[in-house]
# Entry
Amino acid sequence: MSKTTYRRLQYELKAIEQDGLFKRERLITSPQSGEIRVSRNGREQSIVNLCANNYLGLADHPEIIAAAKKAMDEYGFGMASVRFICGTLGLHRKLERRIAEYLEMDDAILFAAAFDANGGVFEPLLTAEDAIISDSLNHASIIDGIRLCKAKRYRFENNNMTHLEAQLEQAAAESPRTIVIATDGVFSMDGTIANIPRLRHLADRFDALLLVDDCHATGVLGPQGKGTAAHFGLQADIITGTLGKSLGGAAGGFVAAAQPVIDMLRQRSRPYLFSNALPPMLVAGAIKAIELARAGDDQRAKLRQHARHFRQGMTDVGFRLLDGEHPIIPVMLDEAQAAQDLANRLFELGIYVTGFFYPVVPRGQARIRVQMSAALKTERLNHAIAAFAQAGRELGIISAKARKTL
Ligand SMILES: *Cc1c(COP(=O)(O)O)cnc(C)c1O
# Structure
């Protein structure tokens, strides 16, 4: 019986490989930073890292490491419990209050990951009498979270506010109790920023709650890095976020919102109730990371400067980028194999990037998603642009004429 199952899986894996869609994981041998060490052909070497979510460069910050070590000494390795049984330390509440204060919300609730925050945020708040209207490019975890909830589902084309308005009208016609509009603050594959002014306006007009997943925006956009809505001087009703990107890059997620929302999630959210409390070292590290992120104007300025510089350099040598201002910079290659080949060649040239293709992005829209970090140095970025140009010419992705030297 199981033999046929294993054979089928092997056959399906082969097909994934033949389509150029097989993902291989490379091993890195150093802390996460602007330059990392990797093992290649049995030799360790240094490589420029252009694909971490380490926007502010906090992943190896000595003050965060010290805070985490101190918490481990004080509170041990792990909680061995979910929060409501015997897994809540003062530290957990402190981090929740710091997140709420940072994002200007009543309260916040921690999850093991943002994936869980999004997976557990809809079902406790909404039933079949309610409606969710979701952006078509929302993160997989929002899609899954919505699937787990009985609310009526509507989808609008990515960042298309005319389509959203039409969907809102359709939803409102059925007189739902509650309408939630769900969007990523920054769309992770494109780096585009959600149209918060229109989203806020439409949410208010239809008396809907605006939920923003700000995983790629917390620490990056807005004053003190308060996120996408703050970037526009506005506020969302529910913010979901991660501790695994700008805020130290370890792990953990959260929801920040009005008190009744957080109180209900604490009673009913399944990934919160049925999954372990975050370990003390992560919590203490995240508290320090938020402090550093809030004070990180220099890092944010550097990020913006790096993004402008890299976009200009790559456009000059002939690559096709998606427009934007976020430190996510997608280099469009369309075919999965081209994205894989370019990433592999760049790896040989000392540049670490990853090809993104189906099912992470739609078929035919394969790309290399480059991400800036405050931990990167301008001279290393120039090296990266030159390597992109060389590899791009070798592989026939850019024309040999585009030979602007750096
Ligand atoms: C990374 C990401 C997540 C998942 O975050 P984790 O904390 O790693 O689970 C969720 N939503 C978006 C938009 C993300 O970019």
